[in-house]
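Changelog-adjacent note: as of this version, every example in the card shows the full chain rather than a window. The one below runs 341 residues end to end.
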Amino acid sequence: MKTDDFDYDLPENLIAQTPLKQRDASKLLVLDKKTGEITHRHFDAIIEYLNEGDALVLNDTKVIPARLYGVKEETGAVIEILMLKDKGDDVWECLVKPAKRVKEGTIVTFGDGKLSARCIKVEEEGIRLFKLLYDGILYEILDALGEMPLPPYIHEKLEDKNRYQTVYAKNSGSAAAPTAGLHFTEELLTKIKDKGVKVLYITLHVGLGTFRPVSVEDVTKHKMHSEFYMMNEETANALNRIKEQGNKIISVGTTTTRTLETIRSRNDQFEACTGWTDIFIYPGYTFKAVDRLITNFHLPKSTLVMLVSAFSSKEKIMNAYKEAVENEYRFFSFGDSMFIK
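Full-length structure tokens:
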């Protein structure tokens, strides 16, 4: 299986640069994963595809203002870091530019010394481990000094940083938003609950895997970076009951999907747990947890296109993407949505 098999042509003008004024006004392409039949709707119609007794599972991670610009203490050179993973004890895994300027022992300061970071380990692909030094509460400092880590294909300034958060974002720690959830409003979630659908939450802090393209020719040789996840007892018990009753689990986004599949693959059921996952889902994978999938339109040759192809088939997904392009859907983080049923 070749990485190039998951390529497609996308006009640059279809890459969404800003969010829509109304979250649930985005387009919704509904794909029947077995027949390949496609229906065009708008996102607020998603409620029609959810039934009483089903579960809608959302990732409640919260994006932190993880992009920081500082200066190297010795030389004054400008250094950009993207905080990716909290390793504990104020040690963070970060992506650094320009990485060659940051060696072990290098100190980078931010905001006139309100925050300092000392490099304690050099890793591959521009990754460094930093020990953070500060007084006060880290997330308050990041709110003052940091920027929302918008993907590199977004060139427009984000006027309201809350639009890169889901309305249910709760647990801080992500370097990117779980973008399939950006289409939901509080009103829509209330209507879904009123229909008798169980709305449940997991947490997966999105990390480096979101930013790294697949660079190998053979898909099976790609290595995913690990990301931290959590599932509480309420969610685990509810999902087990739903499976036992034969109702459907609808996953919102690839991050939720990877979490649900990781937990059920390891335990043969859902359990309250925390851990790290580097699960890589591509065609040939047998899904054990997820029955339906809400997702955005993803980058060519990405692990996310491979995951949705595994959920349906590469041919049906590539055809759906082709039709989305022809119908001028908006792509990527602030773009439109797909429901695979």
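Structural remarks: The two ends are 25 Å apart (CA to CA).
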